[in-house]
Design a protein that fits this description.
The protein is of the alpha/beta class and 208 residues long. It folds into two domains: 155 residues, 3-Layer(aba) Sandwich (Ribosomal Protein L4, Chain: A); 49 residues, no CATH class. The protein is built from seven helices and six strands; from the N terminus they run ββαααβαβαβαβα.
Length: 208
């Protein structure tokens, strides 16, 4: 499949780039995409919520009243969860939400996400993005040239470009990542992908 290469002003350069069918035109596996996105989100969770149980509460261990004859229920400790200031019953404990996922499943998920974007014509190939200085206006002009002002857009760069990254930092609907930072979640979460020309070969070599 051939796609036109655009310049920074959104105009056709007259060149085309070949997209591999093994990456951009496969039968998408929605379950693989689900698993990869689930793993990504699970890995973002800190899992450090914690409450004190009755054994961890500070306080006297003496029996607070006699066992019988009070007319109320028996009570053995001020740290009883039924009392104010007592321990918490079945509260959260620190835990790790991460889980492993097979590398081949992750590759399939990424190829599926790219194929879905390609089928919906939500991928643009740009020759190179570079600004002389970090300016949000420069990035806004780029979005307008591609007609993406109101779309959640992911820009995939060939290596780190500080000026481009800083220019997009204040824009809620735009995210700039390098080719090594691309994940299935980021692809699925974006409405449109803008990929630098040199990145295509790297993506294809990593996924085939």
């Amino acid at each position: 499949m051939k796609v036109s290469v655009l310049n920074i002003k959104g105009k056709d350069t007259g060149r085309e780039i070949e997209l591999s069918k093994k990456v951009f035109e496969i039968n998408a596996s929605e379950h693989a995409v689900y698993l990869d996105v689930k793993q990504y989100l699970a890995n973002q969770r800190q899992g450090n919520a914690k409450t004190k149980e009755r054994a961890e509460i500070k306080g006297s261990t003496r029996k607070i009243k006699k066992q019988k004859g009070t007319g109320t229920a028996r009570a053995g400790s001020i740290k009883n969860p039924l009392f104010r200031g007592g321990g918490t019953i079945f509260g959260p404990r620190p835990r790790n939400y991460e889980f492993k996922l097979n590398k081949n499943v992750k590759k399939l998920a990424r190829k599926s996400a790219l194929s879905n974007k390609c089928k919906s014509k939500s991928i643009s190939i740009i020759e190179k993005i570079d600004f002389k200085s970090p300016k949000t206006k420069s990035f806004n002009d780029l979005l307008k040239a591609f007609g993406l002002e109101d779309k959640k857009t992911l820009f995939v760069m060939d290596g780190v470009n500080k000026n481009v990254y800083l220019s997009a930092r204040n824009l809620k609907k735009s995210e700039v990542v390098t080719d090594s930072e691309v994940s299935t979640y980021k692809i699925v979460n974006a409405q449109h992908l803008v990929i630098e020309e040199n990145v295509i070969e790297k993506l294809q070599s990593n996924l085939i």
